[in-house]
């Protein structure tokens, strides 16, 4: 136990030394800016702004959110390691070491809600695992806290609604995984997650509606236009613009090619034209419905292309373009981080930084642990790995970009579930030994 605590503390200290104060990404810059004017919108999670406001006095700027993320991350892995240590001292030592795996570790330097979300859900699952074989008020209290953390994760990343039922089922029944239970609560939990977002965002906080889902509609319309070679947008374009839309505009890596990048940013410029705003209107929704209904194969081709790009091809890992501005980027002064960059650059072209590799590992973990699903370690491994699988798969339908950060929870889930999955078989054999041979 002491060695596990020491390794976890050392990992936390190493992370702070190597990555502090974190990198204020473009998205995080907007989130942090909302602290000052408190004009909350739904494009970025208002709950990340609220958390940042709470912790910002600790280290104003990126440092405060970085410390929160790193604390959640190492606390989560530390709790998993302590839970494993109660069952196997040797295997417990591997858990903090797995937390140093580059795809998970290096992204801790980036202030993105995806990284914060991973830490929140990791801690939710970890604390339940720690009390899975106990009973009484402590376990019930921990289960309540875990459910609140799962809810916070949904509010940080609303597309996590599809994966949340697996963690909800685990928090309620942590001693064993029963697929019938998970299936039974899946739809109610899905509806509850959607209702939670609507209630918290629009009824309680009254956040500004910025129509983030319409970026998905624009991306889909662009993809269908590309594959059908016919304009699907609810506007007419010039001959040159139409030629661009059917040939050069479509980039499965991101929808930004229609928004902020030349030569096709004319698309959003037209959709947001002040005298005839289409973005955020029913006209765009109706155009999307017509396009998907009329060209389902082109829609599926577009979505499969995005999913393949996300899972199998090189994608953005770290956002580093502001490092050339050391006066504005404190992380540029961290010599340890700069020393790690060559290693990161060498590894990012490998399978370690392919979301598909971690998807396959998650499937393998679920398969390996399935025979021991009625043990606490098996239930944890299956629930967490499956939550990672469901989460990354949502980007097949809902993704508007393929950055590796969107797979971060899948990576963290696999790393946290790997040792418990190995341990689950031992728990199963031990349980069988205690129960004795079957009666004749």
Could you characterize the architecture of this molecule?
This protein is mainly α. Helices cover 66% and strands 0% of the residues. It is built from 21 helices and no strands. α4 runs parallel beside α8 (113-130) and α10 (164-172) crosses α11. The longest helix has 28 residues, at 408-435. The two termini are 42 Å apart. The relative contact order is 0.12.
- Ranges with pLDDT <50 over ≥5 residues? 436-440
What is the N-to-C succession of helices and strands? HHHHHHHHHHHHHHHHHHHHH
The share of residues in helices is 55-70%
Q: Distance between termini?
A: 42 Å
Overall mean pLDDT: 95
- Give Rg in angstroms: 23 Å
Task: Kindly state the number of beta strands.
Answer: 0
What can be said about this structure in brief?
The chain is mainly alpha-helical and 440 residues long. The chain has helices spanning 2-19, 26-37, 46-55, 62-85, 89-92, 94-98, 102-105, 113-130, 137-156, 164-172, 179-204, 213-228, 239-247, 266-271, 282-294, 296-312, 335-347, 355-369, 376-393, 395-398, 408-435.
List its traits:
21 helices, disordered C terminus, 440 residues, 66% helix, mainly alpha
List the helices and strands and how they pair.
Elements: H1 2-19, H2 26-37, H3 46-55, H4 62-85, H5 89-92, H6 94-98, H7 102-105, H8 113-130, H9 137-156, H10 164-172, H11 179-204, H12 213-228, H13 239-247, H14 266-271, H15 282-294, H16 296-312, H17 335-347, H18 355-369, H19 376-393, H20 395-398, H21 408-435
Helix pairs in contact: 1-4, 2-3, 4-8, 8-9, 8-19, 8-21, 9-10, 10-11, 10-19, 12-15, 12-16, 15-16, 18-19, 18-21, 19-21
